[in-house]
Amino acid sequence: MTGQRARWREVVVEDVAILVDLVDPVAILRRPGVVDLVVSWPDLDVGLRATSVTVLRAPTGAWALYRPVEAEYPDTPLGSSAAIHIAPDGTLTRFTGIDAVRGMGTTRHGLWISGSPAAAPHDAAAGSANDELVVLSADGTRRSVIVTHQSAFAVDDGELAALIVYASAPQPVTLVGGGTRYSHNLNEIALPAGDLPPKVDAEHDGLPCDDGRLREILRAIAAREVLDEAVDPGVRWNLVSISDADRQVAVAAVQHEFAHLTDYWRSQDGSTGPLSHGMSDAKTVVAGEWPDTRVGVSLRHPH
Length: 303
What we know:
Blueprint: E1 8-13, E2 16-21, E3 26-30, E4 37-40, E5 51-58, E6 61-68, E7 81-86, E8 92-98, E9 102-107, E10 110-114, E11 131-136, E12 142-147, E13 151-156, E14 161-166, E15 171-174, E16 180-183, E17 186-190, E18 199-200, E19 207-209, H1 211-221, E20 224-226, H2 244-257, H3 259-262, E21 265-266, E22 272-273, E23 280-287, E24 294-300
């Protein structure tokens, strides 16, 4: 169906297709000739903020990484990240309260995450700065790995596990007609099949990784969008108790999204007037009791 948004992501491990729901905390495991297995995690603590979820394939199963959606309202409390590993036999491994700003990817060793944001494209020094990564393993353990250059991806095509790192400072390229883009040289560093070392020397252990090679290995770990999945297991997130203060902040955050409708523009000469798009008499009305609170918006349109 044109314009339909894929709600599920599928990864295939061994002979099992693992379909992970992007909305509800549930996965369907399909094996030829066997009844579907449904697994769920409705009590996973993903914090009080709405989350986005990224689904990735690893040789050990599927990973779902939940991260809080960026908050525009300043009083919104900090969010927390969580992750879950889904093995081909349905075994679940949970991680909560993790400091995940970037999801680097997956290998047979686990899910690689970083607690620091990616460097700005023009930051010449960032590429050679140490990067401290955390690896969440399917066995429930966590370990830290220091990489002597900033990392871009962790990948595993089933044959080779590797880190993709920035090999040097970004190179500015002047565009025709003006403007600048930055070109990055990447290195691929093979990782051992067994235990990870505490430190990866990106200065000496890497081989050049061109765009073609990068696309090839990223395709190997990508989850497939599923548009035609008709099964709804009926699993929903458990509701949690939150304070009255947090409820008020949540409602205020929604109202804040519509604040621009009640704002007035101010011209350079200091005069004020109604909104430039001609709407007026805008207001928000809060109705209903939590968690069924509704924020209604009304306004007068010029037409």
